[in-house]
């Protein structure tokens, strides 16, 4: 898959209308996402069709600094670099020698970025958050969209030893995408250069309208 699977979502249920179990799930998820300001991990991203067939797979690395700075690097067979420098979102496709620059919109951020940034307030408006399972070292959350027209019908978030282990997304066509994290580090020292991007020599730059 040649792009970071993402969907924007925001906010938190009113304290006066949300049931107790929902508040407890929101609070538990927030607790698990607030223990770091920087994060790094290797990942495997793969997709599974509605008939259970595994269709796409790629490996890579992720580094993140709250709020909103990240570098996502996918390796073969779908190489791609995505960098958010806080002003622009840069998407580099090495096989096409092409860079796309988009304006960064803090209010339209992607689901993985919102989750890793610990922005539970943003998540709660568009998704109901349920704590499905907690036993031993594993904790599993499910996020269901409040809007029937949402791109994704289900998101599941698995923590192992209170570190994010898997992010699973299912779309309206039944395709499931999983991002499995490993060798995670919380609060590593990260160079500021990781969150800047220079257009490689010879690459075409495409600037999205409004950028």
Task: Note down, in words, how this protein is organized.
This protein is mainly beta. The chain is built from three helices and twelve strands, in the order αββββββααββββββ. A hairpin with a 6-residue loop joins strand 8 (138-145) and strand 9. The model is unreliable at 1-22 (pLDDT under 50).
Entry keywords:
mainly beta, 211 residues, 12 strands, disordered N terminus, 13% helix, twelve-stranded mixed sheet, single chain
Structure described in brief:
The chain is mainly β. The protein has three helices and twelve strands.
Terminal CA distance? 25 Å
The counted number of beta strands is 12
Could you report the average pLDDT, rounded to the nearest whole number?
Answer: 82
Main beta sheet: 12 strands, mixed
Shape: globular
Outline the low-pLDDT stretches. 1-22
What is the helix content?
10-25%
Rg over CA atoms: 17 Å
Provide the β-strand percentage band: over 45%
Number of helices: 3
Q: What topology, given as strand order, has the largest sheet?
A: 7-8-9-10-11-1-2-3-4-5-6-12
**How do the SSEs run, as a string of H and E?**
HEEEEEEHHEEEEEE
Structural class: mainly beta
């Amino acid at each position: 898959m040649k792009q970071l699977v993402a969907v924007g979502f925001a906010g938190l249920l009113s304290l006066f209308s949300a049931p107790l179990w929902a508040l407890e799930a929101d609070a538990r998820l927030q607790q698990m996402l607030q223990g770091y300001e920087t994060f790094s991990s290797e990942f495997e991203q793969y997709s599974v069709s509605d008939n259970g067939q595994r269709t796409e797979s790629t490996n890579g690395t992720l580094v993140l600094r709250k709020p909103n700075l990240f570098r996502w690097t996918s390796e073969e067979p779908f190489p791609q670099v995505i960098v958010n420098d806080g002003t622009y979102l840069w998407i580099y496709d090495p096989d096409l020698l092409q860079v796309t620059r988009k304006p960064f919109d803090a209010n339209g951020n992607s689901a993985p970025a919102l989750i890793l940034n610990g922005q539970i307030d943003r998540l709660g408006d568009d998704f109901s958050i349920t704590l499905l399972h907690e036993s031993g070292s594993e904790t599993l959350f499910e996020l269901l969209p409040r809007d029937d027209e949402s791109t994704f019908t289900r998101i599941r978030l698995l923590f192992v030893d209170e570190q994010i282990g898997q992010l699973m997304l299912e779309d309206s066509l039944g395709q499931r995408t999983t991002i499995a994290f490993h060798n995670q580090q919380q609060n590593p020292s990260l160079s500021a250069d990781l969150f800047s991007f220079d257009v490689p020599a010879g690459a075409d730059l495409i600037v999205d309208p409004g950028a």
